[in-house]
Amino acid sequence: MNQRMLGLGSRRSVIREIFEFGKKRAAEIGAENVYDFSLGNPSVEPPQIVTDTLQQLLRDEEPTALHGYTSAQGDAAVREAIAGYIRKTHGVEADANYIYMTCGAAASLTISLSAICVPGDEVITFAPYFTEYKVFSETAGAKLIALDSDPDTFQIDLYKLEEAINERTAAVLINSPNNPSGVVYREETIIRLAQILRNKSAQFGKTIYLITDEPYRELVYGGVTVPYLTKYYPHTVVCYSYSKSLSLPGERIGYVFVNPSADHAKELYLAVCGAGRALGYVCAPSLFQKMIARCQGVTSDVSVYERNRDLLAGALTQYGFSCVRPDGAFYLFVRSPEPDANAFCERAKQFNLLLVPGDDFGCKGYVRIAYCVSPAMIERSLPSFKKLAEEYNLKDCE
Ligand code: PLP
To answer: Of 130, 176, 252, which is best to mutate to test ligand 1, by the most ligand atoms within 8 angstroms of its C-beta?
Structure first.
């Protein structure tokens, strides 16, 4: 059998491992005494209009049409609704014939990477990065090159990018708002990034594509905006998902959008369709396609995450922990008070705090705290964080 697949299937991810530990511990001491910050599962309910629309569709639509296959790339009317929304909201060109419906951002990424890369290619991303990027790139035959970000801001280090791009670079993959740092890339960063990609594409006589992974686009706080990438660099492929914005991660719905002005856009879109076919990602869930067509522009109430961020980041900083204050997503990326973040997470477990070491995100010496949990759990967890800080003699500013 395929040893790579055997390896991938046999090793549980660190996050899953911690999650399973949490369930065991909850059975021992009660769920209310375990502070599980491991998983990025939205804690806010989907908006009521999502439930209403699903019920309406189930009531009013003819079942064989509602649950039947759509075209491989997704229902034409659904893709038109999305293209219209992109045009209206971001003021960019968008076309239903360049949208491919998928089972969430994971499928969008695997498809896009497989459409762009050939064996031997390199894909550049920036640490910390979503753990599965390596798996998705390798599935596409490419090697993932992760560049360290500026540790003071977790913005992209553009000098490192300039040095790293070479004739094997097929794509640069970015994720903003970022999992796990919560950082949103600033417009000036994007402008410079686009300039570098233009220069390097010219230097190497090929188009270096930009893949943007955007499941957290709408999860931003304090009036921060997330630049729409096709405006800045035309050779862009957008990987979007409704998992977080509509709190529907288990329903598996998202899309790939190839910018119609990208170099070879028609062929690239056909390659996206081909990759979807080759990977078996055809005809994304029909009911959810039809629901999202009617719920464009709707977002879950993300104000809860903002309050969680303020509460947790405020308290942890006060206890002496340090982190870059995140502008988006629902993660805090906290510097481990000892060099080995795994050892720190083990120590945190003694206080029933379940945190994820940053190593798997390509960034040693940090831990990720997913604050998409109930505000009450954060309140209950604070004394444990305080005790943990005291274990390390961190400064207490109280
Ligand atoms: N990309 C990032 C940065 C993520 O955090 C996630 C999920 O947490 C995904 C992609 C996968 O998203 P989906 O559940 O829509 O496949």
So the answer is: 130
> How many beta carbons lie within 10 A of that of residue 55, not counting itself?
10
pLDDT of residue 32: 94
**Band of pLDDT at residue 398, cut at 50, 70 and 90:** very low
Cβ–ligand 1 contact at 73 (below 6 Å): no
Cα of 5 vs centre of ligand 1, distance in Å, is 20
Q: Give the whole-angstrom CA distance, residue 321 versus residue 17.
A: 25
pLDDT in tens, 339-350: 999 999 999 999
**Distance from the CA of 112 to the center of ligand 1, in angstroms?**
14
How many CB atoms neighbour CB 152 within 10 A? Answer: 7
Query: How far, CA to CA in Å, does 359 sit from each of 42, 150, 175, 180, 328?
Result: 23, 17, 18, 11, 21
**Is the CB of residue 215 below 6 angstroms from any atom belonging to ligand 1?**
yes
pLDDT, one tens digit per residue, over 123-154 is 999 999 999 999 999 999 999 999 999 888 99
Ligand 1 within 6 A of 249 CB? yes
CB 39 within 8 A of CB 19: yes
